[in-house]
Amino acid sequence: MYLSQLTVADFRSYRSAHLTLSPGATVLVGANGVGKTNLVEAVGYLGSHTSHRVSQDAPLVRFGQDRARIGARIHRGSRAVALELEILPGRSNRVAVNRGAPVRAREGLGILRTVVFAPEDLALVTQDPGGRRRFLDQLMVQLRPALGEAAADYERVLRQRNALLKTARQQGRWGPEEEATLAVWDEHLSMAGARLLNGRLHVLQLLAAPLGEMYAALTNGSKPATFAYESTVPGVSGTHQQVPSVQQIAAAMRQALEDAHEQERARALTLVGPHRDELALFLGPAPARGFASHGETWSLALALRLASYDVLVADDPDPDARPVLILDDVFAELDAARRGRLAGLVSRAEQVLLTAAAVEDIPEELHAVRVLVRQDADGSETVAETADRPLPVEGDIRRARMDPGIPDDGPPPAAEGGARDG
To answer: What angle do CA 194, 196, 202 make, to 5 degrees?
Structure first.
């Protein structure tokens, strides 16, 4: 799949912008702060309804506005879909498909699939386990959207169970009524947690080989990249060539929760479950966290994203279903050899959107359209200079203003009230 049109209104620093795209690789080039990342972030958000930079929607809306809009024309084979997403901080986001009436945002999930790498992904290797759990869960939901409900159920029950433990400790009371209520929450948490864990383990089965292959391809086989899942639920830890059933995991988790009751009452916290688990990454025999060099860390984080792309491609062999691959500032920390190897790896994608701070960062091996981006200080005008022929061949440069209007065959128009100033 690929995007032929991208439109944003009141998104981040942009008052409005319209960009025409094509299959293949496109590199947005410009100095830091001109809005390159904002554009690729908009594409990623349209696909996943999450940002790779922030956890809340409010920063995505231009200062002084109450909403932002992202629109795109998405092609999958001979079919084209116009999709517009309205971001409403503090309220429920909405989507419109083919100029239809706005509906719940979740109705638009799956129309555009994306895989995003950004410098923030170094945290997948260097930071606490929470980021690695989110990585797994996001890939799991992309593969099986219904499991998003299991993750949401787990979080809801976990909050209720923790609230019970906290209230009981604050009141200094624990009797038969509290014990019975805790047993009910144990049952609900075990079932929701088992579905979540089963989904994670299936993802890890699919991810193991591509991760090793991608890291070896990027680094010329310097060290093997592997992982191990470390769980608080007995029988779940390991590399898991065979995944326990939901029922088996639920039974083990239920028993582990019961065994931990005394500790949990003392700490007023649930100590067993997928929210406490770790995905440990290794380069050779050593843990990547704390032992990998900066270059190894960057390559491993990139390999995780490229491997997730391969997992999604393998899940749907239709070549027209391949996700849009987004690589934000990917060349900054790669040497020339790794840049060249990356150019070969991404050539399989139908569309790749990249950003770079300087033309010199773009490897000669990457045949891409180049878009030079600059933006006025108030966001009122964005100008792109687009190479007519792919890099590395220099072609004539034509200047094209990113017009705030939306062409007739583009995404649905913004609703009244809005997207433009002046």
So the answer is: 100
Residues of the chain with CATH 3.40.50.300: 1-113+324-422
Q: Which CATH architecture has domain 1-113+324-422?
A: 3-Layer(aba) Sandwich (3.40)
User: How many Cβ atoms sit within 10 Å of the Cβ of residue 133?
Assistant: 18
Angle at 406 between CA 401 and CA 407, to 5 degrees: 95
The helix (H) or strand (E) run that includes residue 212 is: helix 176-219
Q: What would you report as the CA-atom Rg of the chain, rounded to the nearest whole angstrom?
A: 23
Q: Give the span between the Cα atoms of 15 and 12, in whole angstroms.
A: 8
Q: Is 120-322 assigned to CATH 1.20.1050.90?
A: yes
* Side-by-side strand order, sheet with 278-283: 225-230, 278-283, 286-287
DSSP 330-384: TTTT--HHHHHHHHHHHTTSSEEEEEESSGGGS-TT--EEEEEEEE-TTSS-EEE
pTM of the model: 0.86
- Considering the chain, tell me which residue range(s) the CATH 1.20.1050.90 domain(s) occupy: 120-322
pLDDT digits (tens, 9 = 90+) for 6-38: 999 999 989 998 999 999 999 999 888 888 999
259 contact partners, CB below 8 Å, separation of at least 6: none
DSSP state of 125: H
Q: What is the pLDDT of residues 69-111, one digit of tens each?
A: 999 999 999 999 999 999 999 999 999 999 999 999 888 888 9
Q: What's the CA gap between 405 and 296, in Å, rounded?
A: 44
